Amino acid sequence: MRGDGPPAFCLLKRGVMRRILVPLLIGVVGAGILIGLGVWQVQRLAWKENILATIDARLSAAPVDLPETLDPEDDKYLPVRVSGTLEPDALHVLVGAKDLGAGYRLIQPLVLDGGRRIMVDRGLIPLDAKAAVRETGEVGLVGNLHWPDEIDGYTPEPDIARGIWFARDVPAMANALGTEPVLVVVRRQEAGPQSDEITALPVDTAAISNNHLQYAITWFSLAAIWLTMTGYLIWRVTRRQETEG
């Protein structure tokens, strides 16, 4: 003879469903958001790798003569060959280089054979070489045009009196040296006076951050942890309901 009410296991099942509904929804929605962020980072990784490959191809191209007109966007990383006269004025950008330690990027004016005045980033010098007399005279250089984006809200103002800078601000440095806002980062020197104290620091894509893979792994890992914790919570709720039932 059947009772008037629903079977006990049906009541138990309904109670379990009511208690796990909210954790289940939170778990699914949260995991979906985290997985979506991981997928977005994978897409960003492909985008960044394509950009780096394009930059690498441009960096390794044959150098050309310095164009008469330049655009900081279109001509960034363009390989160029320049020749002219180094002037003794110099700016020093405080940096730290991997395997080399702290030092200064040496920025000097170069008067081109045609009369134009530009800047050249000759490379890294030791901290104690800042006061040394800089090489001057005719030089031949190969490098890449660059307009670095190194300034943020935490970058100190340059110490103009001592010629110490904390980022390569091309327009401001050009104003200080009286040159065009054009910077050639030297890759190699083909002629003229050289110094053993200068280590070339050419433009390199290794210096461009590409952390999207790590970010993707982090988001996917968080999604896995979120789902695991959700599953554990649901299991606890189910076990408790069975015990109480």
UniProtKB/TrEMBL annotation:
| Membrane-related topology note | Multi-pass membrane protein
Q: Where are the membrane-spanning stretches?
A: 20-40, 216-235
Question: Is the keyword Protease assigned to this protein?
Answer: no
What keyword terms does UniProt attach to this protein?
A: Cell membrane, Membrane, Transmembrane, Transmembrane helix
Location(s), subcellular: Cell membrane; Membrane
Gene Ontology cellular component? plasma membrane
Q: Does the keyword ATP-binding apply?
A: no
Q: Which Pfam families match?
A: SURF1 (PF02104)
Source organism superkingdom: Bacteria
| Similarity comment | Belongs to the SURF1 family.
- Its protein name is SURF1-like protein
